[in-house]
Amino acid sequence: LRSRPFLGQVKKQSHLLHMETWAMASVGDLGVRRGFVDSVGNTPLIRLNAASKATGCEIYGKAEFLNPGGSVKDRAALYIVKDAEEKGLLKPGGLIVEGTAGNTGIGLALVGNAKGYKTVIVIPQTQSQEKKDMLRLAGATLVEVPAVPYKNPNNYVKYSGRLAEALAQTHPGGAIWGNQFDNIANRQAHYETTGPEIWKQTEGKVDGFICAIGTGGTLAGVGKYLKEQNPNVRIGMADPMGAAMYNYYSSGVLQSSGTSISEGIGQGRVTANLESWGVPARDGGAVDFWCQVTDEEALPLIFDLLKQEGFCMGGSTAINIGGAIKLAKELGPGHTIVTILCDLGTRYQSKVFNVDFLKSKGLPYPEWLDPAFKDVS
Ligand code: PMP
Protein backbone atom coordinates (compact mmCIF):
# COMPACT_ATOMS: atom_id res chain seq x y z
CA LEU A 1 0.00 0.00 0.00
CA ARG A 2 2.70 2.42 0.98
CA SER A 3 4.73 3.08 -2.11
CA ARG A 4 8.45 2.53 -1.97
CA PRO A 5 9.35 4.78 -4.86
CA PHE A 6 12.87 3.70 -5.57
CA LEU A 7 12.46 -0.06 -5.35
CA GLY A 8 11.45 -0.35 -9.00
CA GLN A 9 14.68 1.32 -10.11
CA VAL A 10 16.80 -0.64 -7.71
CA LYS A 11 15.60 -3.99 -9.04
CA LYS A 12 17.51 -3.35 -12.24
CA GLN A 13 20.75 -2.78 -10.35
CA SER A 14 23.09 -5.10 -8.47
CA HIS A 15 21.84 -7.37 -5.69
CA LEU A 16 24.04 -5.59 -3.13
CA LEU A 17 22.73 -2.16 -4.03
CA HIS A 18 19.21 -3.52 -3.84
CA MET A 19 19.77 -4.73 -0.29
CA GLU A 20 21.33 -1.44 0.84
CA THR A 21 18.58 0.66 -0.67
CA TRP A 22 15.89 -1.58 0.80
CA ALA A 23 17.52 -1.24 4.21
CA MET A 24 17.51 2.56 3.85
CA ALA A 25 13.85 2.54 2.92
CA SER A 26 13.05 0.35 5.91
CA VAL A 27 15.07 2.42 8.36
CA GLY A 28 13.20 5.49 7.18
CA ASP A 29 9.97 3.80 8.26
CA LEU A 30 11.14 3.07 11.81
CA GLY A 31 9.82 5.54 14.34
CA VAL A 32 11.70 6.33 17.52
CA ARG A 33 9.22 6.23 20.40
CA ARG A 34 9.70 8.10 23.66
CA GLY A 35 8.48 5.50 26.15
CA PHE A 36 5.39 3.32 26.61
CA VAL A 37 2.69 5.92 26.02
CA ASP A 38 4.33 7.04 22.80
CA SER A 39 4.61 3.41 21.66
CA VAL A 40 0.87 2.75 21.56
CA GLY A 41 -0.68 2.76 18.09
CA ASN A 42 0.71 3.34 14.60
CA THR A 43 0.58 -0.39 13.98
CA PRO A 44 1.18 -1.86 10.51
CA LEU A 45 -1.52 -3.15 8.20
CA ILE A 46 -0.75 -6.73 7.11
CA ARG A 47 -2.19 -8.38 4.02
CA LEU A 48 -3.85 -11.69 4.89
CA ASN A 49 -2.80 -13.71 1.88
CA ALA A 50 -4.99 -16.83 2.17
CA ALA A 51 -8.14 -14.86 3.02
CA SER A 52 -7.45 -12.48 0.12
CA LYS A 53 -6.85 -15.35 -2.31
CA ALA A 54 -9.97 -17.21 -1.21
CA THR A 55 -12.22 -14.20 -1.79
CA GLY A 56 -10.59 -12.23 -4.61
CA CYS A 57 -10.52 -9.23 -2.26
CA GLU A 58 -7.63 -7.49 -0.55
CA ILE A 59 -8.06 -8.40 3.11
CA TYR A 60 -5.80 -6.66 5.63
CA GLY A 61 -5.34 -7.10 9.36
CA LYS A 62 -4.43 -4.15 11.57
CA ALA A 63 -1.58 -5.54 13.66
CA GLU A 64 -2.79 -4.52 17.10
CA PHE A 65 -0.81 -7.36 18.67
CA LEU A 66 2.24 -5.14 18.07
CA ASN A 67 1.12 -2.58 20.63
CA PRO A 68 3.53 -2.55 23.62
CA GLY A 69 1.05 -4.32 25.92
CA GLY A 70 0.33 -6.82 23.16
CA SER A 71 -3.26 -6.01 22.25
CA VAL A 72 -5.80 -3.66 20.69
CA LYS A 73 -6.80 -2.63 24.22
CA ASP A 74 -3.63 -0.59 24.86
CA ARG A 75 -5.27 2.24 22.92
CA ALA A 76 -8.41 2.23 25.07
CA ALA A 77 -6.37 1.89 28.28
CA LEU A 78 -4.27 4.91 27.39
CA TYR A 79 -7.28 7.07 26.51
CA ILE A 80 -9.16 6.06 29.68
CA VAL A 81 -6.17 7.08 31.80
CA LYS A 82 -5.58 10.34 29.89
CA ASP A 83 -9.27 11.24 30.12
CA ALA A 84 -9.31 10.67 33.90
CA GLU A 85 -6.15 12.76 34.27
CA GLU A 86 -7.59 15.59 32.20
CA LYS A 87 -10.79 15.58 34.26
CA GLY A 88 -8.69 15.76 37.44
CA LEU A 89 -10.04 12.40 38.64
CA LEU A 90 -6.71 10.57 38.58
CA LYS A 91 -3.88 12.13 40.54
CA PRO A 92 -0.37 10.96 41.45
CA GLY A 93 -0.61 8.02 43.83
CA GLY A 94 -4.12 7.19 42.59
CA LEU A 95 -5.44 3.73 41.84
CA ILE A 96 -6.87 2.47 38.54
CA VAL A 97 -9.61 -0.12 39.09
CA GLU A 98 -11.12 -2.08 36.20
CA GLY A 99 -13.18 -5.12 35.31
CA THR A 100 -11.65 -6.84 32.29
CA ALA A 101 -11.26 -10.09 30.39
CA GLY A 102 -7.54 -9.32 30.68
CA ASN A 103 -6.23 -7.21 27.83
CA THR A 104 -7.58 -3.87 29.03
CA GLY A 105 -6.17 -4.71 32.44
CA ILE A 106 -2.75 -5.46 30.97
CA GLY A 107 -2.85 -2.15 29.08
CA LEU A 108 -3.95 -0.24 32.18
CA ALA A 109 -1.32 -1.89 34.41
CA LEU A 110 1.45 -1.04 31.94
CA VAL A 111 0.26 2.52 31.32
CA GLY A 112 -0.02 2.76 35.12
CA ASN A 113 3.58 1.60 35.53
CA ALA A 114 4.75 4.16 32.99
CA LYS A 115 2.80 6.98 34.64
CA GLY A 116 3.06 6.03 38.33
CA TYR A 117 -0.37 4.56 39.16
CA LYS A 118 -1.16 1.21 40.77
CA THR A 119 -3.84 -1.02 39.26
CA VAL A 120 -6.52 -3.31 40.70
CA ILE A 121 -8.05 -5.71 38.19
CA VAL A 122 -11.26 -7.74 38.56
CA ILE A 123 -11.23 -10.67 36.12
CA PRO A 124 -13.56 -13.65 35.57
CA GLN A 125 -11.89 -16.90 36.72
CA THR A 126 -12.53 -18.43 33.27
CA GLN A 127 -10.02 -16.20 31.45
CA SER A 128 -6.72 -17.65 30.30
CA GLN A 129 -3.93 -18.27 32.79
CA GLU A 130 -1.51 -16.52 30.46
CA LYS A 131 -3.38 -13.21 30.76
CA LYS A 132 -3.63 -13.54 34.55
CA ASP A 133 0.11 -14.29 34.77
CA MET A 134 0.89 -11.21 32.66
CA LEU A 135 -1.34 -9.04 34.86
CA ARG A 136 0.50 -10.21 37.98
CA LEU A 137 3.83 -9.71 36.25
CA ALA A 138 2.82 -6.15 35.40
CA GLY A 139 2.14 -5.55 39.08
CA ALA A 140 -1.65 -5.46 39.06
CA THR A 141 -3.55 -6.66 42.12
CA LEU A 142 -5.83 -9.36 40.77
CA VAL A 143 -9.32 -10.12 42.05
CA GLU A 144 -10.64 -13.29 40.40
CA VAL A 145 -14.43 -13.66 40.46
CA PRO A 146 -16.79 -16.37 39.15
CA ALA A 147 -17.98 -15.77 35.56
CA VAL A 148 -21.64 -14.80 35.97
CA PRO A 149 -23.95 -12.91 33.58
CA TYR A 150 -24.11 -9.12 33.55
CA LYS A 151 -27.47 -9.06 35.29
CA ASN A 152 -25.91 -10.73 38.35
CA PRO A 153 -24.65 -8.07 40.82
CA ASN A 154 -21.43 -10.08 41.19
CA ASN A 155 -20.61 -9.90 37.49
CA TYR A 156 -16.98 -8.75 37.13
CA VAL A 157 -17.90 -5.39 35.61
CA LYS A 158 -20.35 -4.47 38.38
CA TYR A 159 -18.02 -5.89 41.02
CA SER A 160 -15.20 -3.68 39.78
CA GLY A 161 -17.44 -0.59 39.87
CA ARG A 162 -18.31 -1.21 43.53
CA LEU A 163 -14.67 -1.94 44.39
CA ALA A 164 -13.57 1.32 42.73
CA GLU A 165 -16.17 3.26 44.71
CA ALA A 166 -15.01 1.71 47.97
CA LEU A 167 -11.32 2.26 47.22
CA ALA A 168 -11.98 5.88 46.23
CA GLN A 169 -13.09 6.44 49.84
CA THR A 170 -10.27 4.58 51.55
CA HIS A 171 -7.17 4.80 49.33
CA PRO A 172 -5.09 7.87 50.21
CA GLY A 173 -4.49 8.77 46.52
CA GLY A 174 -8.10 8.07 45.51
CA ALA A 175 -9.25 5.63 42.83
CA ILE A 176 -10.91 5.71 39.41
CA TRP A 177 -13.05 3.09 37.68
CA GLY A 178 -11.98 2.51 34.07
CA ASN A 179 -15.53 1.44 33.11
CA GLN A 180 -14.37 0.50 29.61
CA PHE A 181 -17.79 -0.71 28.43
CA ASP A 182 -19.57 2.57 29.06
CA ASN A 183 -16.69 5.04 29.11
CA ILE A 184 -16.54 6.55 25.65
CA ALA A 185 -12.91 7.56 26.07
CA ASN A 186 -12.49 3.96 24.84
CA ARG A 187 -14.33 4.62 21.56
CA GLN A 188 -12.54 7.95 21.23
CA ALA A 189 -9.17 6.15 21.16
CA HIS A 190 -10.21 4.30 18.01
CA TYR A 191 -11.93 7.35 16.52
CA GLU A 192 -8.78 9.44 16.93
CA THR A 193 -6.11 6.84 16.20
CA THR A 194 -7.11 3.42 14.76
CA GLY A 195 -9.63 4.84 12.27
CA PRO A 196 -7.37 7.59 10.88
CA GLU A 197 -4.45 5.14 10.64
CA ILE A 198 -6.54 2.71 8.57
CA TRP A 199 -7.75 5.53 6.32
CA LYS A 200 -4.17 6.72 5.77
CA GLN A 201 -2.70 3.24 5.30
CA THR A 202 -5.27 2.33 2.65
CA GLU A 203 -4.99 5.78 1.05
CA GLY A 204 -8.73 6.12 1.53
CA LYS A 205 -9.39 3.06 -0.62
CA VAL A 206 -10.96 0.94 2.11
CA ASP A 207 -14.35 -0.52 1.11
CA GLY A 208 -15.18 -2.40 4.29
CA PHE A 209 -14.19 -2.72 7.93
CA ILE A 210 -15.32 -5.50 10.23
CA CYS A 211 -14.62 -6.70 13.76
CA ALA A 212 -16.26 -8.37 16.74
CA ILE A 213 -17.64 -6.54 19.76
CA GLY A 214 -16.22 -6.73 23.26
CA THR A 215 -16.92 -3.26 24.58
CA GLY A 216 -17.71 -2.06 21.05
CA GLY A 217 -15.02 0.63 21.34
CA THR A 218 -13.07 -0.57 18.30
CA LEU A 219 -16.11 -1.06 16.06
CA ALA A 220 -17.78 2.21 17.01
CA GLY A 221 -14.62 4.34 16.94
CA VAL A 222 -13.24 3.01 13.65
CA GLY A 223 -16.72 2.77 12.10
CA LYS A 224 -17.63 6.34 12.98
CA TYR A 225 -14.35 7.72 11.64
CA LEU A 226 -14.43 5.77 8.38
CA LYS A 227 -18.10 6.61 7.72
CA GLU A 228 -17.32 10.29 8.20
CA GLN A 229 -14.58 10.08 5.56
CA ASN A 230 -16.73 8.09 3.15
CA PRO A 231 -20.35 7.14 3.92
CA ASN A 232 -20.07 4.25 1.43
CA VAL A 233 -17.54 2.33 3.53
CA ARG A 234 -19.36 -0.80 4.70
CA ILE A 235 -19.05 -1.40 8.43
CA GLY A 236 -19.49 -5.00 9.52
CA MET A 237 -19.92 -6.76 12.86
CA ALA A 238 -18.77 -10.35 13.39
CA ASP A 239 -20.39 -12.04 16.38
CA PRO A 240 -19.12 -15.16 18.14
CA MET A 241 -21.69 -17.72 19.29
CA GLY A 242 -23.01 -16.98 22.76
CA ALA A 243 -23.20 -13.22 22.08
CA ALA A 244 -26.42 -11.29 21.52
CA MET A 245 -25.36 -8.65 19.02
CA TYR A 246 -26.13 -10.58 15.84
CA ASN A 247 -29.73 -11.05 16.91
CA TYR A 248 -29.85 -7.48 18.12
CA TYR A 249 -28.73 -6.06 14.78
CA SER A 250 -30.93 -8.36 12.73
CA SER A 251 -34.13 -8.31 14.80
CA GLY A 252 -33.73 -5.90 17.69
CA VAL A 253 -33.80 -8.68 20.27
CA LEU A 254 -30.89 -9.16 22.68
CA GLN A 255 -30.81 -12.92 22.50
CA SER A 256 -27.97 -15.43 22.34
CA SER A 257 -27.36 -19.12 21.87
CA GLY A 258 -24.34 -21.42 21.74
CA THR A 259 -20.86 -20.78 23.11
CA SER A 260 -17.40 -19.72 21.96
CA ILE A 261 -13.92 -20.20 23.39
CA SER A 262 -12.89 -16.75 22.16
CA GLU A 263 -12.05 -14.29 24.95
CA GLY A 264 -12.52 -10.53 25.11
CA ILE A 265 -15.50 -10.51 22.73
CA GLY A 266 -19.15 -11.57 22.92
CA GLN A 267 -21.49 -8.89 24.19
CA GLY A 268 -25.00 -9.26 25.59
CA ARG A 269 -26.06 -5.62 25.78
CA VAL A 270 -25.77 -2.30 23.93
CA THR A 271 -22.86 -0.60 25.67
CA ALA A 272 -22.51 3.19 25.79
CA ASN A 273 -19.60 2.91 23.36
CA LEU A 274 -21.98 1.43 20.79
CA GLU A 275 -25.01 3.54 21.64
CA SER A 276 -23.09 6.81 21.46
CA TRP A 277 -22.37 6.05 17.81
CA GLY A 278 -25.98 5.81 16.83
CA VAL A 279 -26.77 2.15 17.41
CA PRO A 280 -29.51 0.77 17.09
CA ALA A 281 -28.26 0.45 13.57
CA ARG A 282 -30.91 -1.71 12.01
CA ASP A 283 -32.73 0.96 10.04
CA GLY A 284 -30.08 2.67 7.99
CA GLY A 285 -27.84 3.12 11.01
CA ALA A 286 -24.17 2.83 11.59
CA VAL A 287 -23.49 -0.90 11.04
CA ASP A 288 -24.33 -2.20 7.53
CA PHE A 289 -23.47 -5.87 7.77
CA TRP A 290 -23.61 -8.42 10.55
CA CYS A 291 -22.78 -12.10 10.71
CA GLN A 292 -22.20 -14.92 13.15
CA VAL A 293 -18.94 -16.84 13.05
CA THR A 294 -18.73 -20.19 14.83
CA ASP A 295 -15.56 -21.48 16.48
CA GLU A 296 -15.67 -24.42 14.04
CA GLU A 297 -15.41 -21.95 11.15
CA ALA A 298 -12.99 -19.55 12.82
CA LEU A 299 -10.33 -21.71 14.47
CA PRO A 300 -9.04 -23.38 11.28
CA LEU A 301 -8.38 -19.86 9.94
CA ILE A 302 -5.86 -19.09 12.69
CA PHE A 303 -4.34 -22.57 12.62
CA ASP A 304 -3.69 -22.05 8.89
CA LEU A 305 -2.56 -18.47 9.45
CA LEU A 306 0.11 -19.76 11.83
CA LYS A 307 1.25 -22.68 9.67
CA GLN A 308 1.05 -21.03 6.27
CA GLU A 309 1.65 -17.33 6.91
CA GLY A 310 3.57 -17.29 10.20
CA PHE A 311 1.20 -15.27 12.38
CA CYS A 312 0.09 -16.78 15.71
CA MET A 313 -3.16 -15.08 16.65
CA GLY A 314 -5.77 -15.40 19.44
CA GLY A 315 -9.39 -16.52 19.25
CA SER A 316 -11.02 -13.12 18.72
CA THR A 317 -8.81 -12.60 15.67
CA ALA A 318 -10.16 -15.89 14.30
CA ILE A 319 -13.70 -14.53 14.56
CA ASN A 320 -12.58 -11.25 12.95
CA ILE A 321 -10.96 -12.98 9.97
CA GLY A 322 -14.02 -15.23 9.57
CA GLY A 323 -16.13 -12.07 9.51
CA ALA A 324 -13.82 -10.38 6.99
CA ILE A 325 -14.20 -13.36 4.65
CA LYS A 326 -18.00 -13.18 4.97
CA LEU A 327 -17.99 -9.44 4.29
CA ALA A 328 -15.70 -10.00 1.28
CA LYS A 329 -18.18 -12.55 -0.11
CA GLU A 330 -21.00 -10.04 0.43
CA LEU A 331 -19.14 -7.23 -1.38
CA GLY A 332 -17.68 -9.42 -4.13
CA PRO A 333 -14.15 -9.62 -5.57
CA GLY A 334 -11.95 -6.56 -5.98
CA HIS A 335 -12.76 -4.85 -2.68
CA THR A 336 -10.41 -3.81 0.11
CA ILE A 337 -11.43 -4.97 3.57
CA VAL A 338 -9.75 -4.32 6.91
CA THR A 339 -10.12 -6.20 10.18
CA ILE A 340 -8.28 -6.31 13.50
CA LEU A 341 -5.51 -8.70 14.57
CA CYS A 342 -6.32 -8.24 18.26
CA ASP A 343 -3.60 -10.12 20.16
CA LEU A 344 -1.12 -13.00 19.98
CA GLY A 345 -2.12 -16.64 20.24
CA THR A 346 0.55 -17.17 22.89
CA ARG A 347 -1.86 -15.42 25.28
CA TYR A 348 -4.13 -18.50 24.85
CA GLN A 349 -1.63 -21.31 24.41
CA SER A 350 -3.32 -23.31 27.19
CA LYS A 351 -6.68 -23.08 25.41
CA VAL A 352 -6.92 -22.20 21.71
CA PHE A 353 -3.68 -24.07 20.94
CA ASN A 354 -4.16 -26.92 23.42
CA VAL A 355 -5.42 -30.22 22.00
CA ASP A 356 -6.85 -31.47 25.32
CA PHE A 357 -8.79 -28.25 25.79
CA LEU A 358 -10.10 -28.28 22.22
CA LYS A 359 -11.08 -31.94 22.55
CA SER A 360 -12.97 -31.18 25.78
CA LYS A 361 -14.99 -28.59 23.84
CA GLY A 362 -15.55 -30.89 20.87
CA LEU A 363 -13.71 -28.46 18.59
CA PRO A 364 -11.61 -29.31 15.52
CA TYR A 365 -7.82 -29.16 15.61
CA PRO A 366 -5.14 -29.86 13.04
CA GLU A 367 -3.04 -32.99 13.50
CA TRP A 368 0.18 -30.96 13.86
CA LEU A 369 -1.19 -29.38 17.04
CA ASP A 370 -1.03 -32.73 18.81
CA PRO A 371 2.28 -32.86 20.74
CA ALA A 372 2.66 -36.51 19.63
CA PHE A 373 2.58 -35.48 15.96
CA LYS A 374 5.88 -35.78 14.10
CA ASP A 375 6.21 -34.14 10.72
CA VAL A 376 8.66 -36.31 8.84
CA SER A 377 7.78 -35.14 5.34
N1 PMP B 1 -10.20 -9.09 21.11
C1 PMP B 1 -9.60 -9.18 22.30
C2 PMP B 1 -8.57 -10.23 22.51
C3 PMP B 1 -9.98 -8.31 23.34
O1 PMP B 1 -9.38 -8.41 24.54
C4 PMP B 1 -10.98 -7.35 23.09
C5 PMP B 1 -11.41 -6.40 24.17
N2 PMP B 1 -12.06 -6.96 25.27
C6 PMP B 1 -11.58 -7.30 21.83
C7 PMP B 1 -11.15 -8.18 20.86
C8 PMP B 1 -12.74 -6.37 21.52
O2 PMP B 1 -12.44 -5.01 21.46
P1 PMP B 1 -13.48 -3.93 21.90
O3 PMP B 1 -13.56 -3.94 23.40
O4 PMP B 1 -12.93 -2.65 21.39
O5 PMP B 1 -14.82 -4.24 21.32
TrEMBL record:
Q: So which domain of life are we looking at?
A: Eukaryota
InterPro entries documented for this protein: Cys_Synth/Cystath_Beta-Synth (IPR050214), P-phosphate_BS (IPR001216), TrpB-like_PALP (IPR001926), TrpB-like_PALP_sf (IPR036052)
Q: Which species expresses this protein natively? A: Sphagnum jensenii
Q: This chain belongs to which protein, by name?
A: Tryptophan synthase beta chain-like PALP domain-containing protein
Ranges for domain Tryptophan synthase beta chain-like PALP come to 39-343
**Required co-factors:** pyridoxal 5'-phosphate
